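Hello Y.,

Per our agreement to keep a running log of every chain we model this quarter, I'm adding this entry. I've kept the format consistent with earlier entries: sequence first, then predicted structure.
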Amino acid sequence: MEIKKNDDIKLNIEALTSEGSSVGHFNGMAVFVRSGVPGDEIICHIIKVLKRYAVGIIKELITPSESRIESDCPVSDKCGGCSFRNMNYDEEIKFKKSRVEDALKRIGHLDIKVNDVIKADSIYAYRNKAQYPVIIENNELKAGFYAYKSHRIIPCKSCKLQNSEFEDILGLISKWVALSGVSSYDEKTGKGALRHIYLRIAEGTGEIMVCLVINANRIPEKEKLIELLKTNKNVKSICVNINKENSNVILSDKTETLWGNEVITDTLLGKRFEISPNSFYQVNHNQCEKLYEKAIEYAALEGNETLVDIYCGAGTIGLSMAEKAKRLFGIEIVPDAVENAKRNASVNGITNAEFFCGDAFQGAKELERRKIKADVVVLDPPRKGCESELFDVIERMSPERIVYVSCDSATLARDLVILKEKGYEAQEVTPVDLFPRTPHVETVVLLSRVK
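Predicted structure for the entry above:
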């Protein structure tokens, strides 16, 4: 029997994909279903059929999996944020470990033991950053998140993953929207002012940054917005980011402070870090500390080493290790983040750190030009992994150890193969769950130079 669109079929959910969808097989064809849990038996309604696979939705849950739980969020089946809201945490952790193992074996052909995932202490309200797309209708603000694989906004002011302070901030901005007459941005026409509401909170200090992303040079009723937001005593920075580009990039490089500080300050592993809107900063404070502790352990610094932190962001990883190193060099492409890193070194009284602005390859080449040899290199690249040209420079640096922090198992596996060819063997792999209820997992790897 061939599957056709609008068919209803009985399906056993067998596994999860890297994106968090579930999958089963019908007459040898893979069928992908959102919100399924391995072990579910369902009636699946087919909504799309392609040559090699089909896509369906759950029409009826015949027998639930032992790992299935009831979602505690009213929009989790519509929003693209939480894939595992209806699955117990132990099953989620099992999936995340297997995802890393599968990538290393299937993509990297690497035979290395993966340690147990470092679990989160809490799976609620852990995100210290929110990026809400918005729609304004009849002067009423509707903020939320995009539906899975779409730009259709699902209104949600009270997200289970976001810090609870953000709901109050959205309420204050809603009042400003109602009296200002501001319009929302329309992707199709390129018109309208308010694009996103971008919020950050420093968990260690409680300081909040409010940033409105606008398709305009200024906002109406600016003073009223400031007056409203200041009623929340934790708001320390109010700014606008001017983004007139027709793209999916949320922030441009042009930010203007309307009131308060240009940055907020957080504490991490006993050090203070200043964060600007464009700075990369891990969204889960407590799990970030566990991740960095593991990276520090793998770096195994004894005080005489030169440490090179590539893709350093605001300098958080490198600066957390600086007191154990002789010298620290950081490389980062975002100018604001470099300035944050320099300031963070100063704030913490760290005098053995130097930071370069440029892409990873350019920065590494500059170190090579200055004949700086690394004893330990930290790599924390974006999801696409390291630039291919970078590996040759690292090989010539010949560090004893590399600590690779990855947010994507597939590009990690690819890069570990390249590093193996350059003489670096993966010694230990530890996943860390920074993103509970989502399919994402961070992984930190220790590599040593083969003698």
